[in-house]
C-alpha cells in the first residue's frame, strides 16, 4: 500500500514538473552564485590554462552542473531508468543544498579549490521546486543545443579559405554578429539550430562567423558593412561579393537566401 501511495505521489509531482519551471527556480534561487552558461572550451581554458583568472568563477555554471549530474564519471542514477534517476537527482540536490559538503560534490575534484564555500539553502526550496530543478538539469542538454553542429571556420587565413572554397566548390558566407545582438541570438536559437539550415550550410558554404566588436571582417567587407547585426555577406569561391543581406531572418526566409545563391 505504501508503495502505491508513493508511486501516485511521484507521478503527480512528475506530471506538473517541467524544464521551464526548473529554469525559473534556477534563475530565482541559484543564479546569484551560478552563471547560466559558458562554453566548455572557455571553461577548460579558464581552469586548466588560466588558473581561474579568466572567468574568476566561484561556483560551477548551469551547464557544468548539468554535465556533472548527467554525464560525468560521478553522474547520478541510471541513464536507462529516467523515473528513478529523477528521484535520485532530486534527493541529491536536497541533501547537498541543505548541507553543502565539498567531499560530497560531483564536480571535478581538480577545480573544487576555486569555489567558495556554499551556504546552506535549508528551507529556501519547496519539494516541488526540487522536482523542477531536477528536471531542469535532466533536460538541460536537450534545451540548450548549440548551433556549433554547423561547421564554422574562425581562422581567417583568406588565401586558405579561398583555396578550400575552390577545392570543395563552395560559396563563402560571412556572418557579422556580436555578443550584444538580440536578433543574432534569436537567429542562433531558432534558425541555425534547424537541421535543414545546418545541412544546407555544411553542404554548400564555408561559414565565417565574425564578432564585429572584437574582429575585423575579412575580404575587405568593412566597406560594405552598414553597422547592423546580423548581416550576411555571400561571396563566390574567388571571394568576390555576390550579395549582402542585412537583418534577422526567419528559418524559411534564410533557407530561401541560402538556396538562391546556389547554382
Automatic annotation (TrEMBL):
**What Pfam families does this protein map onto?**
Cytochrom_C, Thioredoxin_2
Show the taxonomic lineage.
Bacteria, Pseudomonadati, Campylobacterota, Epsilonproteobacteria, Campylobacterales
Iron found in the keyword field: yes
| Source organism superkingdom | Bacteria
Residue ranges annotated for the Cytochrome c domain, each copy included: 17-141
Residue ranges that the Swiss-Prot or TrEMBL entry lists as coiled coil? none
Give the InterPro entries listed for this entry. Cyt_c-like_dom, Cyt_c-like_dom_sf, Thioredoxin-like_fold, Thioredoxin-like_sf
Q: Which species is this record about?
A: Malaciobacter marinus
Instruction: Drop me one GO molecular function for this one.
Output: electron transfer activity
| Protein name (Swiss-Prot/TrEMBL) | Thioredoxin family protein
UniProt keywords (A-Z) are: Heme, Iron, Metal-binding
Amino acid at each position: 500500500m505504501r508503495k502505491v501511495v508513493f508511486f501516485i505521489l511521484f507521478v503527480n509531482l512528475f506530471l506538473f514538473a517541467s524544464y521551464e519551471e526548473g529554469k525559473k527556480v534556477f534563475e530565482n534561487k541559484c543564479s546569484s552564485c551560478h552563471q547560466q552558461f559558458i562554453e566548455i572550451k572557455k571553461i577548460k581554458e579558464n581552469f586548466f590554462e588560466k588558473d581561474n583568472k579568466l572567468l574568476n568563477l566561484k561556483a560551477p555554471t548551469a551547464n557544468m552542473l548539468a554535465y556533472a549530474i548527467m554525464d560525468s564519471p560521478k553522474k547520478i542514477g541510471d541513464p536507462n531508468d529516467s523515473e528513478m534517476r529523477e528521484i535520485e537527482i532530486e534527493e541529491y540536490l536536497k541533501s547537498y543544498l541543505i548541507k553543502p559538503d565539498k567531499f560530497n560534490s560531483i564536480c571535478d575534484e581538480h577545480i573544487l579549490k576555486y569555489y567558495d564555500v556554499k551556504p546552506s539553502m535549508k528551507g529556501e526550496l519547496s519539494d516541488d521546486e526540487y522536482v523542477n530543478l531536477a528536471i531542469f538539469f535532466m533536460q538541460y542538454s536537450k534545451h540548450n543545443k548549440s548551433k556549433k553542429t554547423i561547421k564554422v571556420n574562425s581562422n581567417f587565413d583568406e588565401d586558405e579559405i579561398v583555396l578550400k572554397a575552390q577545392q570543395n566548390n563552395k560559396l563563402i558566407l560571412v556572418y557579422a554578429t556580436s555578443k550584444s545582438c538580440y536578433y543574432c541570438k534569436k537567429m542562433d536559437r531558432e534558425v541555425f539550430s534547424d537541421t535543414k539550415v545546418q545541412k544546407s550550410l555544411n553542404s554548400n558554404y564555408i561559414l565565417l562567423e565574425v564578432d564585429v566588436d572584437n574582429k575585423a571582417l575579412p575580404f575587405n567587407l568593412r566597406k560594405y558593412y552598414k553597422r547592423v547585426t546580423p548581416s550576411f555577406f555571400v561571396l563566390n569561391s574567388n571571394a568576390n561579393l555576390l550579395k549582402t543581406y542585412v537583418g534577422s531572418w526567419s528559418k524559411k526566409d534564410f533557407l530561401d537566401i541560402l538556396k538562391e545563391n546556389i547554382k
